[in-house]
Amino acid sequence: MANITTDTMEKRILSIENKEDAIVLRQKTAPFDFSRFTKKEITELVRAMRVTMKAASGIGLAANQIGLNLSLFVAKIDRKLHAVFNPKITRFSPDEDEMEEGCLSIPKKYGIVRRSTVIWLTGQNAQGQKIKVKHFGLLARVFQHEIDHLNGILFIDKAKEVYEGKRENGNAE
Ligand SMILES: [Zn+2]
After folding, report:
1. How many domains does the chain have?
2. What is the 146 CA–ligand 1 centroid distance (Å)?
3. Is the pTM of this model over 0.90?
4. Domain that holds residue 137
5. Catalytic hit among 44, 146, 161, 173
6. Distance between Cα 2 and ligand 1 center (Å)
7. Which tens digits make up the pLDDT trace of 120-171?
8. CATH number, residue 152
9. CA 34 / ligand 1 centre spacing (Å)
């Protein structure tokens, strides 16, 4: 049995500006144990994260951003929803680029972050099956941002400079 209640309602997104939220956001999440959840609970959990991300106009959301100590994130890029459980980046391309990032847990702040343009990733899908994928471009960037979240790392740790307000057409994750 899961010790969390899942439903498909929009959840409150934790903010770095709140001391108690910041502690959660700075913790590395626990592995997602599929044996603790029913299929229905997993479906509802993913749906709740998608609804919350959409309501906040974000393109990515990690479980600890809604207070759940679980290694799971969702991302929606080019109309495709990705829900990745227990993700692990196994290889980063040496080729990097810079792009402005924002974060749903860091209100109004933006910064330019340097990241690999290609990543190789392992993890599990919502059915618990192992996945092994390679991602490029925006998908690679968003996945790196979300996996950082699951390890308690925020974009402000990596940005050369953090500023108020967007300078580019960045997305919030
Ligand atoms: Zn974020």
Report:
1. 1
2. 6
3. yes
4. 19-172
5. 146
6. 25
7. 999 999 999 999 999 999 999 999 999 999 999 999 999 999 999 888 776 6
8. 3.90.45.10
9. 24
